[in-house]
Amino acid sequence: MSLLNQKTIKNPVSFSGVGLHSGKPAKICVKPSIPDTGIVFKRIDLKDNNLIYPNFMNVSNTALNTTISNSNGVKVSTIEHLMGALFGIGIDNALIEIDNEEVPILDGSAKVFIEEILAAGLEPSDKPIKIIKINKKIEFKNGDKFISIEPSKLSLDIDFELKYQNQIIGSQRNKKNVYEDDLTEIFESRTFCLYEDIEKIKKNGLAKGGSLDNAVVVKGEEVLNSEGLRNSKEFVNHKILDCIGDLYTCGYRMIASINCSQGGHYLTNSLLREVFSNKDNFSIIEIQERTLPHTLINRSLLRSIA
After folding, report:
1. Which of 179, 175, 218 minimizes the C-alpha distance to 302?
2. Under 8 Å CB-to-CB from 48, ≥6 apart: which residues?
3. Does pLDDT of 267 surpass 70?
4. Which one of 21, 81, 265, 294 is the catalytic residue?
5. What is the third-level CATH fold of 5-130?
6. What CATH architecture does domain 131-305 belong to?
7. Model confidence pLDDT, tens digit, residues 137-185
8. 281-305 burial, b for 16+ CB within 10 Å, e for fewer?
9. Does the active-site annotation cover 294?
10. DSSP codes joined into one string, 24-37
11. pTM
């Protein structure tokens, strides 16, 4: 069966943990779904109006996470790491049952999601995948922060720059071809913050579940986590993970070139809203032949096409 056909998870897989911002325990179960249904979240703690679709138009909050809501105000927050994992693995369709309002943060990265979903296996269908092809360059700026997207021949390239005054984080930049490069360091990179920002973040009602078990904390010239950093560019790599997860709220994988400086959830969502505001900016293409490069995540185990 073609690698370019839609895929779902073969066997259900569950994850349990605390919500990073809510501090509430939650359990999710990623279940198989039929072709052309996409990714759907279901709040099983609620009986009615409990389906939420991770579409960029349903993003209701971008403050330190991506939150989606339905028309009845039912929400699911911090979806970006799970969405990044689903994108990277090549899961087109899945039902995600969740018993609370926030996806468990686990270790602060997508590493556990990737490992467990791969272990559960993938189930291909006989339906071809669809991709978004960007036709025009679009930019979005917010002060000195910016993000742009423009046409690319066969790849999804993300060039991301991070600028911090802190000496440990500093200025970091990385560029990845999402469909051909080894993304292990992207998916293992954890969310992070400065020690001096923690009190302010908590005063805003966030990070109630944060700890050194699920976030990298930097204080002055020191990383407070005993194990240190997982890779030399963990900070910018985590931002690329967030970007991949947020891009998947367009509903499909994508062929494009993205350049971002000091961006985050708000910039990526704003860019998607701009792109899809005009049908001339993009095309939706159904892929039926092996005409595009494939991504290799755990290269011997997985091949997934954009």
Report:
1. 179
2. none
3. yes
4. 265
5. Ribosomal Protein S5; domain 2 (3.30.230)
6. 2-Layer Sandwich (3.30)
7. 999 999 999 999 999 988 999 999 999 999 999 999 999 999 999 999 9
8. bbeeeebeeeebeebbbeeeebebb
9. no
10. -EEEEEEE---TT-
11. 0.93
